[in-house]
Amino acid sequence: MNLRDILSPFFVWKRAFEKPYSINTLSAPRPGAPAYRGFHKNDVSKCIGCGTCAEICQNVSIEMVPVATAKDGDSGLRPKIDYGRCCWCALCVDICPSGSLTMSNAYTWVEEGLDKDVRDTFCYTPGVDSKPWDNEPLGYKKPDGYELLLLDRIPMPHLSPEERLSSFVELVKGYSRELAIREADRCIQCGICTATCPAHMNIPAYIKAIREDNIAAGLQILYDTNPLPGVCGRICTRLCEDVCALSHRGDAISIRWLKRYLTDCVEAEDYKDILKTEIKPLGKKVGIIGSGPGGLSAAYYLANMGYEVDIFEKTAAAGGMLRYGIPEYRLPYDKIDKDIDFITSLGVKIHYNTCVGKDISFDDIYKRYDAVFISTGLFEPYFIGIKGEDNEGVISGLKLLSDVTEGKEVSLGKHVVVVGGGNVAMDAARTARRLGSEVTILYRRRDEDMPADREEIDEAYEENVTFITQAIPLEINKLADNRLEFIWGKAEMHFEEGAKRPQPVLIEGSRETLVADTIIAAIGQGMNFAWMDGEAFANIKFGKWNIDADRWGRSSDQKIFIGGDMFNRTADAITAIADGHRSARAIDKLLNQ
Amino acid sequence: MKKLYDILSLQFELADFESKRSDLAFCKVKASQAISLLTHLRDIHGYTHLVMLTCVDWLEDKQFQLTYLLHNYATKTDLGILVFIDRDHPVMDSLHHLWKQGRVYQRELHEMFGIDFPGSPGVEEPMILEGWQGPPPMRRDFDTKAYSDETYSHRPRVQNEPEQHMKEQLYSED
C-alpha cells in the first residue's frame, strides 16, 4: 500500500466545496407536465364511494376505507391508494362514475417517519388526508370523447302518444332479451342502490343474472326480498335509479325494466319449479287485513315460513291500490294476477268481499289468529275543502280509477279538470284522456314541485293534458246547463328556509274561471279506523293519526302489526312490500322463537 | 424483396413470405437452417445489422416463435426471419459468433422464456431477475398473481364492499 492509497479518500473532500452536479428537487421543484399523471386528488363531496376505482385497479392498490357515515347514494367509503402498488395508469380516473377522482401533476412525495404502521406508509386517502397538491389545478383528468362506462340507457320501446289514447293497452313494451342483456351490461355492480331500495333487493345480483342469461337464478333473487316483482317491474317508484352510480354522469341503469324483463321471461306455471318452495306447516295462524302489496308480501313470507295465512279483502279482487289505484296501461291486471296467483298457490287464502267491521268483526279476527297484520292502506280521499265540492260531477281520482278497474260505465263529459299533482292525479288525468275527455290539471305549486313521477308527468304532457300550475282552487258552482264552474286563483311561491317545497300563497284578488263537466279531486288519501272494535282496539295505542308502532310494525299489542301506506311515509308499493317482509319476520320471531 | 426470397428459396427451405411494406418482409425458415440462412444474408446479401431478436409464445400451438430482424443499409430494407421451435424443449442454435450483441438477446430470452442457446457466452446469467426462483415470467402460462402471492408477503388491508358496508351501517337490524 502506498501513500496515495492512504490519502486518496481525503482528496474527495475537496469536492465538498464545489457546486454540486445534482439538482435538489425539494428546493428547486420541477413541475410535472400539465396533464401529468401524478398523485391522486378526490373531490370527496362528489365521490359516492362506489368502489369502481378499486374494482378496476389492476394492481389492487386501492382500498375502500370508511371515512363518513353511509347515506342514500353514498357508501361513506373513500378510496385509499397504496403508492407502493400504484402504477399511475389512471384507469381509476377514467372510470370514476361520479367524476370525482383526478390526478395532480405532483410526482414527488417524501414520506417521513418510517416508524409508521406499514399499512399507512406511502398510502393516503385523497381528499381526506390533506396533501400539498390538493389544490393543484394541473394534472390528469379524464379526457373528453373517451368513455369506459356505458353511460347511455338502452331506450325502452313505448307506444306512441296517439296509439296510447285509443286504448288501455300497456304503453311500455318491455325489453327484448338482447336489449335487456345490453342494458344489464352497463351495470358496474357497485351495490349503492341496494341500501336505498326500501326492500333492499339484491339489485346487482339479479342484473348479473340477466347478463349471464340465467333467468331462473334472477327470479329466485327477486323473490328473496320481493314477492311482487312483476308488479314492481312496472310501477315501482325506483328510488334505486335515483342513486345509481351511473346517473352522476349518464343515465341510471333501467333497474325497474330489467326486473320486469326477468318476470316476463318466466311463464306463471314455471314459477313453482324455479322457486322450489318447500313449506313445513307450523300449525299457527296469521290473519291479514287488506290484500295490497303490504298484506300480500307479509302473506308470502309467512306462508313460506309455514304459517297458515288468511287475508281479508273488502273488494272482489286482490291487489289493493295496485289494482284499483293504478290504471291498466301502466300495470295490466293479468300481470297483477300472475304475482298474486303464485302467492295464493302457496296456500294463502284470500277472503274476498269481506269487509272487516261489517262482514266480520276485528275482535273476531284478533281472537281467531295468533297474530294480525294490518295494512289497509290509505283509502279515504281527502276533500279539497272548498265551497260547492259536494256538487254532482265532483269525484275523487281514486273513485274514477277504481270504477274503471271494476269495468263500470264512466261518463266524464267533454271537459275534465283534475286537481292535484301526485301520481293519482296523473293517472286520473290520463285515464280521462283515454275515455275521450279534454283534461286540465291544476296544481298549487310549480311544475318541478309535483310529487308525481317525472315520467308520469312527461307522459301526461305527451298525451296532451293541459297543465295549470300555481293555481289554488277557490270554489265550484253548478251552472244552469248542469256543468260546473270551477273558480281558481293564481298563487305566488313563498320560499321558506329549510322547507323542501315553496308555500303557495294566493295573489289577492286573482280569480280565474274554468268550465268543466267533471272535476276530479286527487290531492291525497287518508286512513280510517272506524272498522276496528273490541278489546284489542281498546288496547292499542294510537298516535296523532295512526297506530303507534316501532320500525318492525309492532304495535303496543304484541299480536298486532301494521305496515303499508298507513305505516310508512313514502306510501309506495315497494315500501309496503318491505314492511310486509319485515313484519313477517317480526311475527315469526314472536310466534316461533 | 420477393425476388430475394425466390433466390434464397433455391438454397433454403423457406415458407410463408409476407411483404408488410415495400421495405419490410417476413418469411419462415426451418430451425436447423436458420443460422446458415442468417450467415448467408449477412455475408452475401448485405443484411449486416441484427436489429433485434425476440420471441412470441404460441402457448396453444406449443411453439415459440423466434423473430430475427435484419437490416440492409444499402437497400434500406428490413427482413424478418421467423423460426418456430418446440415449446417443451426450447433449444436454439446461438448466433453470437455472427453478431456480438446477439448474446445479450439470447441471455434475455433465456431468462424471460427459458430458451437455451448452448454456447452463447453467459447465457445463464441473470439479466434483471437476480435471484429469480419461479418459471420464466414472460411465458404466457406464468401466473403473475399466484407467483406474487407465493413469493411476497402482503400489506394487510381490508376491502370494504360498498353494498355490505352500507348494510352494516344502515339496515343491519332489518
Please outline the major beta sheet of chain B: 5 strands, mixed
- How much strand of chain A? 15-25%
Shape of chain A: elongated
Average pLDDT taken over every residue of chain A:
91
What class would the helix/strand composition of chain B place it in?
A: alpha+beta
Helix percent of chain A reads: 25-40%
Query: Approximately how much beta-strand content do the residues of chain B carry?
Result: 25-35%
CATH architecture type of the largest domain in chain A? 3-Layer(bba) Sandwich
Low-confidence spans of chain A: none
**Rg calculated over all Cα atoms of chain A:** 31 Å
Number of helical segments of chain B? 5
Shape of chain B: elongated
Mean pLDDT of chain B: 92
Question: Quick recap of the structure?
Answer:
With 593 residues, chain A is an alpha/beta fold. Helices cover 30% and strands 15% of the residues of chain A.
Structure description:
The complex is a heterodimer of chains A (593) and B (174). With 593 residues, chain A is an alpha/beta fold. Chain A folds into four domains: 24-148, Alpha-Beta Plaits, CATH 3.30.70; 174-273, Fumarate Reductase Iron-sulfur Protein, Chain B, domain 2 (Orthogonal Bundle), CATH 1.10.1060; 278-379 and 534-592, FAD/NAD(P)-binding domain; 381-525, 3-Layer(bba) Sandwich (FAD/NAD(P)-binding domain), CATH 3.50.50. Chain A is built from 21 helices and 21 strands. Chain A has a five-stranded parallel beta sheet with strand order 8-7-6-9-21, with helices on both faces. In chain A, strands 11-19-12-13-14 form a five-stranded parallel beta sheet. In chain A, strand 6 (285-289), helix 13 and strand 7 (308-312) form a beta-alpha-beta unit. In chain A, helix 7 (203-211) packs antiparallel against helix 8 (215-225) and helix 17 crosses helix 18 (423-434). The longest helix of chain A has 20 residues, at 573-592. Chain A starts with a helix and ends with a helix. The model of chain A has no long low-confidence stretch (mean pLDDT 91). With 174 residues, chain B is an alpha+beta fold. Chain B has one domain: 2-Layer Sandwich (Beta Polymerase, domain 2), CATH 3.30.460.80. Chain B has five helices and five strands; from the N terminus they run H-E-E-H-E-E-E-H-H-H. Chain B has a five-stranded mixed beta sheet. In chain B, strand 1 (14-21) and strand 2 form a beta hairpin. The longest helix of chain B is centred in the N-terminal third of the chain and has 13 residues, at 31-43. The relative contact order of chain B is 0.12. The mean pLDDT of chain B is 92.
